[in-house]
Amino acid sequence: MKFKNLFFGAMIATLAIPALANKPITVGSGGVGGSYYPMVNDMIAFCGSSTSRQFTNVESPGGSVGNVIGMTNKEFHAGITQIDVLKYYAKMMGEKVNANRMKVVVGLHRESGHLMIPPGWEPKSSGFSGFFSKLNFLEDKKGVDINLLKNQTIGAWGGSIVSAKALSSFLGLNMNVVEIQPGAKVDSPVLRVAGQPDDHVKAYLAAGWNIVPIDAEILKNRASFYDKVTLNYSIGGKVVSIPSFGVRAVFVAKSSRADARNLPFSEMASCLRKSLADLADDSDTNPNWESVYEFENEEQVDWDYFPLLK
After folding, report:
1. pLDDT at 310
2. Dihedral angle at the C-alpha atoms of 101, 92, 144, 288, nearest 10 degrees?
3. Residue 8 — pLDDT band, cuts 50, 70, 90?
4. pLDDT value at position 22?
5. Average pLDDT, the chain
6. Residues 256 and 204 placed together within one structural domain of the fold
7. Alpha-carbon distance 62 to 20, whole Å?
8. The whole model's pTM is what?
9. Are residues 139 and 217 located together in one domain of the fold?
């Protein structure tokens, strides 16, 4: 009887392998109106025919956070996320999120950090007393020390909540991160990590809020995945450039112990690297591909990658 059970078990397992190989690879992206969803569509359009398994785009309202969590519970095989979100979950739940279980298919565009403060806000710290009342937001191009947020309450929504928690955790800021409604006007700073120009940020500026210039070098010295960016927004009828920080978005997939299961991701990675110029130049693709192409020869994000096919 035991031999018979083993025989049928082996037969079922054998039959399941080709069935699994024919199942499409589900990719968590984002909302249809965002940037992640069309970028996944672009990747599939340019490289889907080059892979041994079909890739399918799945709308993920949870964005970066929803995609990482979706990969841990097998909702998605792959997804786009910000590297700070990935690193934060690796720190908080390393048994499920680590470079052995998830690898990067390709590095993508950079998302920008917008730290906004309401009119008259000052940090609750004697060391920064009266700091912002002396700061000329339209003229001062020097970034301020992110440590002004130490022990402060900060509002955020969506994936920016985890970005704020990551900022607090990796820089030792001990911030009280509070979830707010999208675009809510509160009496505390608000962090918005998104592509620019962002409509919510523009609404805050129209309501008299200010974007705080941030010295990204301080962040980068503590956590290398933070980058320097320049925010450009129209304030008072004048386009103003504001230094801040940014984080790369990455296309990540679950890594398997079986090389055959990883093959489609290496195929996709190889095709995308070869197609970056075409993705950047095509008039129908997402504009973010232009910056992805510019990153091609830059240092990649500090995370393991699927090997490229020769």
Report:
1. 78
2. 30
3. very low
4. 72
5. 87
6. no
7. 26
8. 0.86
9. yes
List strand residue ranges (DSSP E) for 152-300, in order: 153-156, 176-179, 190-194, 210-211, 226-235, 238-254
| CATH number for 270 | 3.40.190.10
Is 140 inside a domain boundary? yes
> Long-range contacts made by residues 40-48, C-beta under 8 angstroms, separation at least 24?
40/80, 42/279, 42/282, 42/285, 42/286, 42/289, 43/251, 43/268, 43/272, 46/271, 46/272, 46/275, 46/278, 46/279, 47/267, 47/268, 47/271, 47/272, 47/275
pLDDT digits (tens, 9 = 90+) for 118-153: 988 888 765 666 677 767 676 766 788 888 889 999
pLDDT digits (tens, 9 = 90+) for 65-114: 999 999 999 999 999 999 999 999 999 999 999 999 999 999 999 999 99
How is residue 157 annotated by DSSP? -
Residues 154, 189: one domain?
Answer: yes
Can you tell me which residue has the tokens 């120009």?
A: 197
